[in-house]
Design goal:
The complex is a heterodimer of chains A (274) and B (298). Chain A has 274 residues and is of the alpha/beta class. Chain A has helices at 39-47, 74-87, 100-112, 133-139, 148-159, 166-176, 181-193, 220-229, 245-248, 252-263, 269-272; strands at residues 3-9, 12-19, 23-28, 50-55, 94-98, 118-122, 207-212, 234-238. Chain A starts with a strand and ends with a helix. Chain B has 2 domains: 9-165, Hotdog Thioesterase (Thiol Ester Dehydrase, Chain A), CATH 3.10.129.10; 179-297, Nonspecific Lipid-transfer Protein, Chain A (2-Layer Sandwich), CATH 3.30.1050. Classes of the chains: A alpha/beta (274), B alpha+beta (298). Chain A binds chain B through residues 130, 144-147, 150-151, 154-155, 157-159, 214, 216-217, and chain B through 256, 258-259, 261-264, 273, 276-280, 283. Chain A: Residues 25-253 form the AB hydrolase-1 domain. Chain A: It holds the Pfam family Abhydrolase_6. Chain A: This is Pimeloyl-ACP methyl ester carboxylesterase.
């Protein structure tokens, strides 16, 4: 059973889905997308004994836009997540995010790590990924951004890993086409300009960085480097997977459950049994 | 390398290791060499032959003060290893006429104790105007025991043909970037409704450049009017990559053009706006170019 609610967070209505009871896991979506990316995982996490919490970030999915317009600074999203954690009274949650969600998870770990059980940052490095900020600024003018939906569609197809069946890749790309270009471009400006490199050594919670070997947005070496800067962090490179592990990997929640178990402290006991 | 006239056709096996004439090479073919260990004898011999006795290659205490920490083989030693390993493959012993060029990059140092091999991809087969021989261009990656590319580049070789033919009779499906390839591609695009629809609001010329070869396709409202080496006003935009990238894209397992473009393997010149308008059209074009290449290979 998925429970849906609208909550007032940082001055706007936020849409949040929750399922299960247990250790909270906050699941963050990618640039321009929404919590629908976690639609299969949310149920599976609940079955594994977690309280899965899946918000739509401001301006995405069913959440209202942020009061000051499209967000270009990922720390604004991180602050919003802290407000959400407080509003829902999530005690020592895990945070798992992908792409900008992964980078937001790292930001939360850097600034509020002691209040978290751990983070899994997928498809994110600590620097700027492979984006051109100049090009993205130009893209904010609709007149300068031709073939916008084609580029989202084909760009998503090209970002899905080789091991994913064609029909599934097609579904992911088709669903990703539902985006607000002003919001997703601003997200990517945030992704490209949010430099967390200096903050990594101070991260005070367990961290696991994950990157797909077929991800054209990231250099896996940059992700390994970031993991090496975080005390005790580990790094996993997923073979045949691209930029969206939670949408590409069958049974992703079980894989995530294994990672959370390795991070330690408060994994549901029932589920940890082999 | 030896120079010789064509041998009797009994020596023309097309499997790996067999003797090959020009016609037996095809774009997209790959050859993997045997391995070769680098021994202490190598830097000594190569220093003697080349005369390059820089202490970086010969003096461990000097090398210890450099970024390499220990002696490094002379860069061209890697090219020599490629020549030797290629000779061992024995694919053109009696058909090779001459080596024509080498364009090379040194990526990582080679040390004594390394074990090297190469992976070679055929990227272009072009019959000469005389019709009795042809140029085979090859991309070569020299790889160490860790799977790391230490050197790479291209090197073209002139090979005897089995039959003397007019070069215009040869298949064009893998002559990427040439006018003949552009014409064959244009015929397919003309018949492709999806391409017509994707370019139905466009008036201009786009260029496709593979290595040194470039062809311009003139499009008006979804119709491909002409494929030519150079349109009178030039191209609105041009998409370009090296021969290896086009070869892998058009003869590989799938159409991964967007992935390669995102990885920076393709560059564009001219109007970036019109290039973006072609996002779908280029994907459809690559589908057509892939079937053109595949059907001719068969």
């Amino acid at each position: 059973m998925i429970h849906a609610q609208y909550s007032e967070i940082d001055g706007a209505s936020a849409y949040v889905e929750q399922a299960g009871a247990g250790t909270p896991v906050l699941c963050l979506h990618t640039a321009g997308q929404s919590g629908v990316q976690w639609r299969h995982v949310i149920r599976e996490l609940a079955e594994l004994g977690y309280r899965a919490v899946v918000p739509d970030l401001p301006g995405h999915g069913r959440s209202e836009p942020a009061p000051s317009g499209p967000v270009r600074d990922l720390s604004v999203y991180a602050d919003w997540c802290r407000s959400l954690i407080g509003a829902l009274d999530l005690q020592r949650p895990y945070v798992v995010g992908c792409s900008i969600g992964g980078k937001i998870a790292l930001d939360l770990a850097a600034r509020a790590g002691s209040a978290l059980s751990g983070v899994v940052a997928m498809a994110a490095d600590a620097h700027n990924g492979n984006v051109s900020l100049r090009g993205l600024e130009r893209e904010l003018e609709d007149a300068a951004a031709p073939s916008r939906t084609d580029r989202t569609y084909y760009g998503t197809l090209a970002s899905v890993g080789r091991s994913v069946p064609a029909r599934q890749a097609e579904l992911i790309a088709t669903m990703h086409r539902r985006e607000d270009p002003a919001v997703s471009t601003s997200d990517l400006i945030g992704w490209g300009s949010h430099d967390l490199r200096a903050a990594l050594p101070a991260i005070a919670c367990p961290a696991h960085l994950v990157v797909g070997e077929d991800d054209p947005w990231l250099d896996s070496e940059a992700v390994r480097w970031a993991a090496a800067q975080i005390p005790g962090a580990c790094c996993t490179v997923l073979e045949g997977i691209g930029h969206y592990p939670m949408e590409e990997l069958d049974g992703f929640a079980h894989v995530l459950h294994g990672w959370l178990a390795e991070l330690g402290e408060s994994v549901p006991r029932e589920a940890v049994r082999p | 390398m030896t120079t010789s006239a064509a041998q009797p056709s009994s020596a023309t096996a097309t499997g790996e290791g067999g003797e090959r004439y020009f016609e037996d090479f095809a774009v997209g073919q790959r050859f993997t060499s045997a391995t070769r260990e680098v021994t202490q004898r190598d830097p000594e011999a190569f220093t003697e032959i080349s005369g390059d006795a820089h202490p970086l290659h010969t003096d461990p205490s000097y090398a210890a003060t450099t970024r390499f920490a220990r002696p490094v083989l002379q860069g061209p030693f890697g090219i020599a290893v490629v020549a030797g390993l290629f000779h061992d493959l024995a694919v053109v012993d009696s058909t090779v006429i001459a080596m024509l060029d080498t364009h090379w990059r040194y990526l990582q140092p080679i040390h004594v104790g390394d074990t090297l091999h190469f992976e070679m991809t055929i990227t272009r087969c072009r019959r000469s105007s005389s019709g009795d021989r042809g140029v085979v261009n090859r991309h070569v990656a020299l790889i160490d025991q860790h799977g790391q590319r230490v050197q790479e580049g291209t090197t073209a070789v002139l090979v005897q043909a089995r039959e003397t033919r007019d070069p215009s009779e040869d298949p064009v499906g893998c002559a990427f970037g040439t006018a003949a390839w552009g014409e064959a591609l244009a015929r397919r695009l003309e018949a492709d409704r999806e391409f017509g629809s994707a370019t139905a609001s466009w008036d201009g010329t786009f260029g496709l450049r593979c290595g040194e070869d470039e062809v311009h396709l003139r499009v008006y409202r979804g119709r491909v009017l002409e494929a030519t080496r150079r349109a009178p006003l030039g191209a609105t935009f041009t998409v370009e990559a090296d021969e290896l990238t086009w070869t892998e894209l058009l003869t590989g397992p799938r159409n991964d053009f967007t992935h390669r473009a995102m990885r920076g393997q393709f560059r564009t010149r001219g109007s970036g706006y019109d290039y973006l308008r072609f996002t779908k059209a280029l994907t459809v074009l690559v589908d057509n170019a892939r079937s053109l290449a595949t059907e001719e290979t068969r």
